[in-house]
């Protein structure tokens, strides 16, 4: 106890005299307590514990010793529950976890919450307000957890949570991360609860997501670099897209099923790869197929349902809405400026294709979007101003490899910015969007994103999705962010030698 009092006092940053005055004793008494020459009177122990905001056990045994005791009690109580699952035994487990959660919330809060859920489902004696308080605390904690810890916590939560509360946790599922999807968590939940019907329903969605992610993963490899290591799997994009076509044809029995958006990406990618290799005629064959698939998807918006054609997807279907169609179109729109098409720009088939695709978005502009319902022309000085802000922020943070700064200007004229690292666990962008939401200032007018090496780029897919979710008026951002391409192409043209006259 002498050591505990001394360490707690030092942690508070107070002197022996200050502690003595707070407890109405002499400084000499405190000194003797801390050296072990004397012990506080029994009546003083509760006051000392209250002053340091600890329990009597923690005061006398030390914080870690106290936790060790509670951990042992938790292990014994858990064994008792397995032997005899009574309300009394279950309540004992929850009471111990409540104490452990106060001391080590990161380690025990989720376990405490899920045990309360089990007790509520079995004995219906846990108040909803108590659970709601814990949900709020866990949500705040998840925002600050590394990706691995977050995924582990979600598995436990989703497995035990009430069905009508599941949507609370969906937003914490890391999007586009390896093969982890929300459906994966639901599959574990329904398998654990032996809910065959719901498990079968979710499994179909999971199969689709898995295949989509598999093709996207191959796409990353096809670029030739993965983690700064030269790829040894697919030496060129041509081979990658041909492999993708084989994969999708193995799964899909018709061309207008639920995999239609994937077909558009693959056919267009193969066309670009063929043009780059000078295989122009075959390239135009795939460009023609791309247009056919785009027409099918675009005409299906709001009035048709795409269904799964293979047997294992026979109950899977989706309605095509504007935002999904736009997301797909972004894989094609504005790519007419890419260098791969330099050899076919004069061909009328090239012009016809991009006239059609770009015509689907008649209201596109530069990097600035809309203000008060009116178009704003591209303003080079405004773009430069926001880019300067981004670069200054990068300098302040001493940004290193794979770090970017994103700057938002809202229709109210306010500017928000954040420096974002190269991990999905980073929460800087979430903090920025939360600040905008608190200020009721979520309608974005302009966006600029700069890397630490000075490159101008488009914010990540995840951030764009958050922007759209933040405010329906930001829906155009999916298209308009691509306006940065104009700036990038213009800067590249400055570096190229002048064209020779024929």
Keywords:
elongated, alpha+beta, 23 helices, 7% strand
Reading side by side through the largest sheet, how are the strands ordered? 8-7-9-10
Share of residues in helices? 55-70%
CATH class bucket of the largest domain = Alpha Beta
On the 0 to 100 scale, the average pLDDT is 76
Broad structural category = alpha+beta
Rounded radius of gyration (Å): 30 Å
Say how many strands there are. Answer: 10
The coarse overall form would be: elongated
Count of helical regions: 23
Uncertain runs: 219-235, 362-376, 478-493
Percent of residues in β-strands: 5-15%
What is the quaternary state of this protein? single chain
CATH superfamily of the largest domain: Cytidine Deaminase, domain 2
Distance between the termini: 93 Å
Task: State the CATH topology of the largest domain.
Answer: Cytidine Deaminase, domain 2
- Biggest β-sheet, characterized? 4 strands, antiparallel
Taken together, the total number of domains comes to 4
CATH architecture of the largest domain: 3-Layer(aba) Sandwich
């Amino acid at each position: 106890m002498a050591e505990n009092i001394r360490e707690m006092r030092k942690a508070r940053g107070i002197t022996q005299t200050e502690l003595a005055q707070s407890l109405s004793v002499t400084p000499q008494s405190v000194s003797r307590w801390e050296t072990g020459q004397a012990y506080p009177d029994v009546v003083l122990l509760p006051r000392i514990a209250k002053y340091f905001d600890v329990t009597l056990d923690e005061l006398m045994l030390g914080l870690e010793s106290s936790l060790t005791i509670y951990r042992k009690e938790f292990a014994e109580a858990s064994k008792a529950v397995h032997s005899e699952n009574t309300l009394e035994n279950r309540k004992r487990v929850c009471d111990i976890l409540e104490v452990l959660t106060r001391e080590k919330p990161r380690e025990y809060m989720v376990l405490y919450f899920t045990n309360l859920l089990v007790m509520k489902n079995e004995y219906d004696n846990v108040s909803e307000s108590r659970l709601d308080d814990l949900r709020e605390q866990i949500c705040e904690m998840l925002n600050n957890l590394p990706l691995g810890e977050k995924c582990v916590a979600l598995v436990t939560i989703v497995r035990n949570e009430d069905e009508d509360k599941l949507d609370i946790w969906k937003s914490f599922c890391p999007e586009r991360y390896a093969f982890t999807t929300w459906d994966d968590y639901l599959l574990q939940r329904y398998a654990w609860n032996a809910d065959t019907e719901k498990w079968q329903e979710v499994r179909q969605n999971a199969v689709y997501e898995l295949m989509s992610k598999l093709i996207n993963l191959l796409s990353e490899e096809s670029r030739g670099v993965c983690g700064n290591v030269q790829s040894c799997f697919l030496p060129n994009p041509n081979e990658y897209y041909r492999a993708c076509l084989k994969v999708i044809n193995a799964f899909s029995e018709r061309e207008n099923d639920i995999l239609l958006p994937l077909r558009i990406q693959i056919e267009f990618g193969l066309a670009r790869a063929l043009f780059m290799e000078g295989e122009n005629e075959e390239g135009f064959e795939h460009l023609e197929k791309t247009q056919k698939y785009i027409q099918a998807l675009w005409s299906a918006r709001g009035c048709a349902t795409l269904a799964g054609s293979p047997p294992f997807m026979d109950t899977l279907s989706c309605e095509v809405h504007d935002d999904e169609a736009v997301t797909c179109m972004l894989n094609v729109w504005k790519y007419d400026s890419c260098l791969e098409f330099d050899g076919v720009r004069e061909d009328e088939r090239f012009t016809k294709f991009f006239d059609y695709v770009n015509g689907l978005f008649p209201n596109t502009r530069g990097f600035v979007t809309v203000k008060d319902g009116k178009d704003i022309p591209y303003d080079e000085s405004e773009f430069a101003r926001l880019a300067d802000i981004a670069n200054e922020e990068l300098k302040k943070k001493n940004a290193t490899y794979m770090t970017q700064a994103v700057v938002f200007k809202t229709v109210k004229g306010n500017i928000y910015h954040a420096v974002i690292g190269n991990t999905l666990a980073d929460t800087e962008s979430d903090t920025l969007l939360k600040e905008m939401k608190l200020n009721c200032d979520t309608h974005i007018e302009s966006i600029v994103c700069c890397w630490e090496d000075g490159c101008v780029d488009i914010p990540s897919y995840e951030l764009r999705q958050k922007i759209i979710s933040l405010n329906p008026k930001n829906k155009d951002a999916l298209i308009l962010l691509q306006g940065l391409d104009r700036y990038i192409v213009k800067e590249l043209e400055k570096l190229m030698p002048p064209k020779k006259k024929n």
